[in-house]
Amino acid sequence: MDMMTNSPTIQETGHGDHPKPTNNSNNRPSARFCHLHPDILYRIASKLPPKEFAKTSILSSDWRWSACPRLTFDAAAICKCRREVLHLHNRFRSYYINEVNGVLHIHQDKLVETLEVKVDFVDSILLAHHIDTWVHFAVSSRTKNLTLDLKPKRFSEYDDRYVFPFQLLDQESISRLQHMQLSFVSLNPPSQFKGFPNLRKLHLQTLHINRKDLENMLSSCSTLEWLCIDRCRLDDELIIVDSPLPRLLYLRVHFCFTKIKFNAVNLATVEYDGDFIPIDLVQSSKLQSANIRFMTATFQHALISLLNGLPSVQSLTLQIRVQYIQKQWLWDNPLKFTNLKHIQLVMFILLEDVDKVLYSLAFFRATPFIEKLEVHFAGCGLWLAEAGPSRKDLGQCKYVHLKNIWISGFKAAKGQLEFLLHLIENAPALEVLLVEIGEYPPFNSWFGAGGPPIKKAMDIARTCMRPILPQNATFDIKG
Description:
The chain is α/β, with parallel strands linked by helices and 479 residues long.
């Protein structure tokens, strides 16, 4: 008997026939979910996240799944311990391997769209053979999304990478792959290998690969939309991909190359973290956002390089961990950022450059259409520092589109104050000014019993800035 008197009932037919719904008291035909054909149920449930997929067995006492189209084998989760300590105990590795093999055996001859293997590759003799078997399973299971995340926590201590078994792939499986992550892998593709023609997302991390092989592989991925190259070791660290990547929207490079050049006309976002190198994305005329973090560079040199390589960028974030500033008023580069409207600068001011802060303003001669400016200062020598030139030495430079200024890490150094006063005096359309006093990023510093001179810095900001602000501009100070 049904728990609800008006619940629908189904008159079942023979095995494989469609159920025949009966009308309830209101003559509304209906059917029980659990009486759908198993293949239909499997397809519906396969769209759920893995944990939710597993819970579907409670819907019916007769509904028990023997397969899941998305399989993730995270060693830390399976062995219930931190991933980096797994290699210390053979029993953990053996347990993990047995668990993976057991689950894959159940899924033999089933469609598995996503296969993820996450384990530290610290025992190449034991693991390599099994991973080959798992890749072969992915080929036979028509896998579209493959992850081999094999990077140990201290990966620099290990030389042996997992050698990717190209010999196990046929043209059909190569064409089927859409998403792929390879971490701590060695790639040595055969001469006839022509790349992954339908790959949309590719994440390469701590790889060993020949520069020419990488360029050839990327040049053949014409459908690529998302690309991350992270700490990959090449024989030659120059990377130039001249072949068009018309669908590439996102590019991230982390500590890899000495020069980057891509032909990606529709690229929307680029992120770079590493040494100061040339980045050539001149073809990317639709570039919306660039987030650039250099280890060491001279401020003016870095910005000129980005102007030459990213001339069409609309929003630019620049952070230089060890930053130097030149005493230079003139901006002799004839190019302009014609689309740049938002700039975020994270400026670590060395003690020796406290008196040079104002010289960084020369860069803004190349940003005629800037609307929003964020500058986050960091530097222990900035508190009430009195050294540096006056804004009168800079000359006139109007910022007619500038509407929003946000300055953090303000410590009332002369360079900071002159920097802000110059901007305010030359921004007739300014609507919002936010000044945050103190450290960037915020942290507790020891200044003795009196603490940092926050109140004095706030008084200086109010006294000097409020009188020259446009009449309707909003001014907010936070300490």
